[in-house]
């Protein structure tokens, strides 16, 4: 059925201009509705519809190109109907090529293939007239957002299209004019248009200036090198204006405001131009006051929080003296852990209460496995930056948000999720860093209050049982020094911990084997042996 409809669409678009452009508008409108319907259908039907080979075979793109480049020679021609046809044309291209954020990965890939087919045609000299007419509609109120949607899909599909956009006048003229508010657009489309502009400029930085492909993961802790300073200078007015929009969060839509930090940090590379304190305060204001949607799919294959964590880590490393205190005092660090706990809770099918069970964050869109690792590294960095007592206060605060999130990192469910698509080294690092953070309340510098509250939370969240399980199930003997040390501390302070260890030793063969390997196997760390003997002594 879909094949027959696409063939009929091509035929109608070829002959209708000679009759009535209204027929073309209605045909394109049906095509757009079908795109929306198939995205809500089964994955099999959706993949069958978004098939570039089928679309090419039915000659859909040549028919659309001919439609909007045909001269209007008829005396009875209606320019309003023709303009409406152009509007539906841009909407059709967006419907076929735009990979919306709600699509699962397999359908996202299907749409990107269609976008690639369209991109290659637009780059063909035979389609130059079609391309010019299409881009020429950008200043038309109802078209700019749809043109950006199609561009978003096409630049995802091939760096060649990003290069084409970059080399022309579109960035410095149309896109910059849109960001400056000099192009009239539908009020309902403005937020989305600005957000798409941010995504497109970000991708151009990634593809053209850093020369990374779509699957290369950006890590701001690496030294990013702009490959061509002249190209960077061309894009700098756009990134600079986006930065100005961020500083007035009421102007920028919430999701785009959240996206900005990643764009600007990558654009600046090693040269971080904004005042760290001011930037952290602004980001905190955006996240707190706008109640922004954290669930955003980036063109980087990771979650929104990843970008924010990387940027904050970057700022802390550039100027720790100014940024660390601001990060904690502004509440932004607390917000990160609050959102992380929400993400973790969404991964649990059997929740502890109804409040948890209604959270339906898509798997790993909020934050990736690498993002979890980086947040732990950032947290450890803050503990070490002479801010331990402030961090400890967050760790043991009444809502216990940070503590609960850390305890979930040691749970069987989450460690198994971590292992699905990541290396064992990442799981090892996450477990070790989590244990390192849990060790701080046992430091000689902490007060009795910190220690008592920590022990209370350890008991509430079954830390000793989780700790023993992940240590013996996931860590090799040479990586157990920190977890074994934490077990020793808990066994010293808590009778319940001693009881749990005793019961598990009597009933769990795997735990007995683990301690046997620690005591009798090859072990170069005297601390592991000391902590093991200390545990058994307790």
UniProtKB/TrEMBL annotation:
<dbReference type="GO" id="GO:0005524">
    <property type="term" value="F:ATP binding"/>
</dbReference>
<keyword id="KW-0067">ATP-binding</keyword>
<dbReference type="GO" id="GO:0005737">
    <property type="term" value="C:cytoplasm"/>
</dbReference>
<dbReference type="GO" id="GO:0007224">
    <property type="term" value="P:smoothened signaling pathway"/>
</dbReference>
<keyword id="KW-0418">Kinase</keyword>
<keyword id="KW-0547">Nucleotide-binding</keyword>
<keyword id="KW-0808">Transferase</keyword>
<dbReference type="GO" id="GO:0004674">
    <property type="term" value="F:protein serine/threonine kinase activity"/>
</dbReference>
<protein>
    <recommendedName>
        <fullName>non-specific serine/threonine protein kinase</fullName>
        <ecNumber>2.7.11.1</ecNumber>
    </recommendedName>
</protein>
<keyword id="KW-0723">Serine/threonine-protein kinase</keyword>
């Amino acid at each position: 059925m879909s094949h027959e409809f696409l063939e009929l669409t091509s035929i109608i678009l070829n002959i209708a201009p000679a009759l009535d452009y209204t027929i073309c508008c209605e045909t394109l409108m049906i095509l757009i509705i079908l795109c929306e319907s198939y995205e809500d259908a089964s994955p099999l039907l959706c993949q069958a519809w978004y098939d570039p080979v089928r679309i090419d075979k039915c000659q859909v793109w040549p028919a659309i190109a001919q439609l909007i480049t045909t001269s209007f020679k008829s005396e009875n021609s209606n320019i309003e109907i023709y303009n409406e046809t152009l509007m539906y044309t841009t909407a059709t291209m967006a419907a076929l090529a735009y990979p919306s954020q709600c699509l699962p990965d397999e359908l996202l890939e299907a749409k990107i293939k269609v976008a690639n087919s369209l991109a290659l045609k637009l780059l063909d000299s035979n389609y130059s007239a079609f391309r010019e007419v299409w881009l020429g509609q950008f200043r038309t109120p109802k078209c700019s957002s749809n043109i950006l949607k199609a561009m978003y899909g096409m630049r995802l599909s091939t760096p060649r299209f990003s290069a084409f956009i970059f080399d022309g006048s579109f960035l410095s003229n149309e896109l910059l004019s849109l960001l400056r508010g000099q192009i009239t657009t539908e009020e309902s489309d403005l937020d989305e248009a600005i957000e798409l502009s941010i995504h497109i400029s970000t991708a151009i930085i990634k593809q053209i200036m850093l020369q990374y492909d779509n699957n290369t993961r950006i890590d701001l802790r690496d030294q990013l090198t702009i490959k061509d300073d002249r190209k960077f200078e061309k894009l700098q007015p756009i990134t600079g204006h986006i930065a100005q929009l961020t500083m007035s969060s009421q102007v920028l839509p919430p999701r785009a405001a959240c996206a900005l930090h990643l764009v600007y940090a990558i654009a600046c590379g090693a040269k971080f131009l904004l005042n760290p304190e001011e930037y952290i305060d602004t980001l905190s204001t955006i996240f707190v006051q706008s109640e922004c949607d954290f669930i955003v799919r980036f063109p980087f294959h990771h979650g929104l929080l990843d970008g924010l964590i990387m940027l904050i880590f970057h700022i802390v490393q550039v100027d720790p003296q100014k940024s660390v205190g601001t990060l904690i005092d502004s509440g932004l660090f607390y917000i990160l852990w609050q959102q992380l706990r929400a993400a973790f809770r969404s991964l649990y099918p059997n929740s502890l209460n109804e409040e948890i069970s209604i959270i339906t964050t898509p798997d790993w869109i909020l934050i990736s496995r690498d993002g979890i690792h980086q947040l732990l590294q950032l947290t450890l960095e803050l503990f070490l930056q002479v801010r331990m007592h402030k961090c400890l206060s967050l760790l043991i605060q009444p809502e216990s948000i940070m503590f609960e999130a850390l305890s979930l990192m040691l749970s069987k469910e989450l460690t198994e999720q971590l292992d699905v698509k990541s290396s064992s080294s990442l799981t090892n690092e996450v477990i070790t860093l989590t244990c390192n953070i849990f060790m701080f309340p046992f430091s000689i510098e902490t007060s009795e209050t910190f220690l008592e509250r920590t022990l209370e939370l350890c008991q509430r969240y079954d830390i000793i049982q989780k700790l023993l399980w992940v240590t013996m199930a996931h860590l090799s003997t040479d990586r157990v020094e920190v977890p074994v040390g934490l077990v020793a501390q808990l066994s010293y302070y808590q009778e319940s911990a001693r009881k749990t260890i005793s019961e598990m030793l009597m009933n769990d063969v795997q735990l007995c084997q683990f301690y046997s390997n620690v005591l009798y196997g090859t072990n170069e760390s005297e601390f592991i042996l000391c902590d093991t003997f200390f545990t058994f002594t307790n």
